[in-house]
Amino acid sequence: MRSSRRATPPFSVERVRARQSFFNKNFLEKQSAQKQHKRMYDSFETPMVLSLIACDTVITDAQSGKKTLVGLFNSVGAARYPHVLPRFFIFASLTNGNGVVEFRIRLKAGNGDTVFDLPGKVPFNTPLDAPEIVFDIQNLAIKSTGSYELQIVHNDIPIASRILTFRQIEPPQNGGRQPQTQH
Predict the structure, then answer these.
(1) N or C end of the chain: which has fewer CB within 10 A?
(2) Domains of the chain
């Protein structure tokens, strides 16, 4: 026969209330320690990437701050490799950050070699912000054709990537001029 008195489960309201001061004290001590321990980034959340785009040009309106992306691409053709891409831009938008978030923009070749690895910082007033970042890449040397992975890295973990393909194109047979780079 069962007893009319029920045992108090380990996480009952009564037990939590009895230990509330213990939990509050530990929580406040941890919060204080986290503030004292300066980390390389202010964010404790992983930012989310809303966009990662390669393009020929980014135009920023002086009055509104709005950006216009011109010549979006995911493939580059060149007659010869190694090839130097004179200039292009990387545009990214992130959200879910807190404070100043440090990250890196990386381009990795198919064999795993790092072509470039650039640091960046983006400020967030709240995690709901969606700041935009623009990188101006100049004189990028690509050794060979193939797929290259463009990454945004936070805390040494890629949080977004896209493939940029570099391909061989045939020079024109009729003696006409062809641009050095074709997107």
Answers:
(1) N
(2) 48-172 (2.60.40.1930)
